[in-house]
Amino acid sequence: MNRQKEGTPLASVGEFGLIERLARAWQSAAAGSPDDSRGGGLGCLTSAIASPRLRWGIGDDAAVIDGLAGKSLLVTTDMLVEGVHFLWSPERRRLLGRKALTVNISDIAAMGGIPAWAFLSIGVPAGAAVEDVEEVYAGMGEVAARYGVVLAGGDTVRSDKWVLNVTLLGLAVKGPIGRGGGAPGDLILVTGSVGDSAAGLHLLLSAGREKAGTGMAAVSEADRKLLLSRHLDPTPRVAEAMALVEHGGVTAMMDVSDGVSSEVHHLCRNSVCGARIDVAALPIHPATRRLAEATGQDLLAWALTGGEDYELIFTAPPEQVPGLIAQVRQDAGTDVTVIGRLTEQAEGIMAVYPPETDRNVVPLAAKGYNHFR
Amino acid sequence: MNRQKEGTPLASVGEFGLIERLARAWQSAAAGSPDDSRGGGLGCLTSAIASPRLRWGIGDDAAVIDGLAGKSLLVTTDMLVEGVHFLWSPERRRLLGRKALTVNISDIAAMGGIPAWAFLSIGVPAGAAVEDVEEVYAGMGEVAARYGVVLAGGDTVRSDKWVLNVTLLGLAVKGPIGRGGGAPGDLILVTGSVGDSAAGLHLLLSAGREKAGTGMAAVSEADRKLLLSRHLDPTPRVAEAMALVEHGGVTAMMDVSDGVSSEVHHLCRNSVCGARIDVAALPIHPATRRLAEATGQDLLAWALTGGEDYELIFTAPPEQVPGLIAQVRQDAGTDVTVIGRLTEQAEGIMAVYPPETDRNVVPLAAKGYNHFR
């Protein structure tokens, strides 16, 4: 990606000229999207399931979608604000677009659904170049193509800072899977590994501060690349969600956006349960473990409250668990780990630290990211 | 509405506490919403048409909507940014919420649909009080109750300036009405009156500048109130759209958000037509005419390019027009006016000024509001 030294002023293309250029940027990125080996090609999913179709997209007062007979429609929306959720960087325009769509796809996957139609509202600073906006769209287009998502509408406005709001519509493949279906005795599982995104963020925030004694010098280039990618360009777990739905037996599910601790509290509140989380069982990637050791950072804090992992956390009765784990491994090539179990609500939401003694069972703090703290 | 001198800091209630308070603010405003005489009670519309229902709303990864068999789903989204689309004012928090939903309801009505489910993403400055956000929600809740709209999800984030993004889902009552169905010979009609919103904006921008010679002193309190209301608290033309759909025969429709001139250009582009607009026929409210005369402002500029009228502009074959006008008058109590007709594309998009001579037929400038100029 080239640093954009000079660009086309927004005023020179006009609002409708801009919209046309952006639709093109999305389309050409979507057409040229490299096949990603993680999870296999998923663009076919929508066409396989979907008699629904977008009759009219961009260019009218509203988009029109037909043929939703018998399908549950899923709708999610997320707002990302410059300076709060991301720092604007010319080198990372495309990654910004990718992540803005990814976090919404992750929400749809966490309902047991496939993503279908995206609506992007974007606030663009007056001083931005057309190429800046095009790159954001191109990033979204790349991810969209991979998961069969169509840009169906949106709004382009001026603002002081960059603001992206994505509303994503999807379809539940079977029944939608909410947060409230868990029961005492169900095991709690998580896909992939947790804490990598927080580790990547730590690397990002430490950039340019690689002084002696910070331990940064000891981090390998491969670890650095992997962890930055996990933070800046996460993979939504669509293939994993489809494997879980295909197998059946998942009672509650959500994605890990705020952090495992916070999500366990959500699952417990909606399912009217308590929980015990086995801290030693949390799946930690070796690269994340190495970074925490090299830099003296709190590995468990990354894993429990770091957030932005976009893994799936879900519950299922014990007898379903071996089959679910096998199905996800087979269909998506991803490991799934049992990290605890749901209990009666009166037992509270507890973290169990090794060795398991009475004094090592403590309340699991729910601290995720509070936007207003 | 009281000016909020001191309020509850956002940080003191936490993110989830805030979401709960906002849902309550919406609900209690919706429950206490006064019946508005314009157009009659419309909340019944959704339940009358709709087997579709919101299975799960706020509180999961995505909202779930079932039962869309045979219905066309309509989706529209709009982003409003402080300092660009509105100035933050403690006195007008509730009006801001009302208008943010209204402009989206207007888009759904302009497709011949009824609004159903709203998703609100809101960016809130860190220094704002909980009561500020509650008032915005309460305003939306008032409008939502009147039109049968349910708050189905959203996102609450921190930002430097206030940002509101509403995504609204609706259902087409019969076939959706787009912008592309007009044909040469169709008449062009508009509901209500145009230019009032621009007149109201002029009053707003002139506030505190009522010097001698500006003509402001001559404006009656009744005119002032009416025009400000037309700008700050427009009425979406849902009852009018339903009357048009009920009657049938409308070939193309949209709402007047950017201005009549701009919308005529859209209709012509999508319908592959030209147009002749009879400038003398534009429906101008007497209050708007009086304000333009008292202040020396350009009445036609207000009517043609002022925008934000949220009237419906539509086309229909001449033989359908008397029936359509009668139906809207009967069902919604609103006047509809013929303002021109579609022509062959080669004839261009023309404005006809009185008296109709060759030199009084000139190209209709498309200048709406360009966000990046």
From TrEMBL, chains A, B:
Mg(2+) 1 binds at residues 77-78, 155. It catalyses: thiamine phosphate + ATP = thiamine diphosphate + ADP. Residues 184-348 form the PurM-like C-terminal domain. Residues 59-171 form the PurM-like N-terminal domain. Mg(2+) 2 binds at residues 78, 107. The keyword Lyase does not apply. Mg(2+) 5 binds at residue 258. Its EC number is 2.7.4.16. ATP binds at residues 137, 154-155, 179, 257. Keywords: ATP-binding, Kinase, Magnesium, Metal-binding, Nucleotide-binding, Thiamine biosynthesis, Transferase. Mg(2+) 3 binds at residues 61, 107, 255. It holds the Pfam family AIRS_C. Pathway: Cofactor biosynthesis; thiamine diphosphate biosynthesis; thiamine diphosphate from thiamine phosphate: step 1/1. Mg(2+) 4 binds at residues 61, 76, 107. It is an enzyme of class 2 (transferase). One of its GO terms (molecular function) is ATP binding. Substrate binds at residues 85, 308, 369. One of its GO terms (biological process) is thiamine biosynthetic process. Catalyzes the ATP-dependent phosphorylation of thiamine-monophosphate (TMP) to form thiamine-pyrophosphate (TPP), the active form of vitamin B1. Reaction mechanism of ThiL seems to utilize a direct, inline transfer of the gamma-phosphate of ATP to TMP rather than a phosphorylated enzyme intermediate. Belongs to the thiamine-monophosphate kinase family. NCBIfam families: thiL. PANTHER family: THIAMINE-MONOPHOSPHATE KINASE. This is Thiamine-monophosphate kinase. It comes from Heliomicrobium gestii (Heliobacterium gestii).
